[in-house]
Amino acid sequence: MDKIIYILYILVILTPSFRTHDIIASQGLFLNILNLIVTCFILFKGIYRDSSSTSYKSNIIPISIFLFLFWSCITTVKSINLIESFKTLTEVFTVCLALVNLVLISRYYKTELNFFFRLLLGMQLVELGFIYSQFLPDYLDGFTGGINYMNYKGLTGNKNIATFSILLKTPIVLLFLFSK
């Protein structure tokens, strides 16, 4: 069951745009629906009771993420554009909830760390493959139509998010590949 949940979280990136202006809106909707389903699964299965909360206190990553969420809540109060700040805050909350769900599921099912690294490697290869599949025809054509950087946005629908995603996963993937 845990691997199905992980694959569903990975499939968020493949969500179609449903004719929205920004593909991130449909990906956010799918991620929120998935978070709701997985959270209900965790609550009904009682998974939250089985995981030890002491490991959260000693791990810097969850502490940093929740401090970031807390800081986002504070800065939303004094923002100039309150609606945009609240929208961004809900996106941050959605990502934090997804992280908590994944951590609880992985601890309950005792998922191996190598599985996560293989998933990250697969995600990285799919993302890079999609970007290169858009870049190579332009390159082989000699960029006769000019360079349109918006074509190289990958599966995320935004070149900045695609770049951040690749840069975030690269050190982890390299650590996994060279540690063997």
Structural class: mainly alpha
Number of helices: 8
Which percent range fits the helix content?
over 70%
Tell me the series of helices and strands, N- to C-terminal: HHHHHHHH
Question: Sheet bearing the most strands, described?
Answer: none
User: Overall 3D geometry?
Assistant: globular
Summarize the structure in words.
With 180 residues, this protein is an all-alpha fold. The protein is 75% helix and 0% strand. The protein is built from eight helices and no strands. α1 packs antiparallel against α6 (82-109), α5 (60-77) packs antiparallel against α6 and α7 (113-140) crosses α8 (159-178). The longest helix is centred in the middle third of the chain and has 28 residues, at 82-109. The model has no long low-confidence stretch (mean pLDDT 79).
Descriptive tags:
180 residues; mainly alpha; 0% strand
Write the layout of secondary structure elements.
Elements: H1 2-10, H2 23-45, H3 47-50, H4 54-58, H5 60-77, H6 82-109, H7 113-140, H8 159-178
Helix pairs in contact: 1-6, 2-6, 5-6, 7-8
What's the short version?
With 180 residues, the protein is mainly alpha-helical. It is built from eight helices and no strands. Helix 2 crosses helix 6 (82-109), helix 5 runs antiparallel to helix 6 and helix 7 packs across helix 8 (159-178).
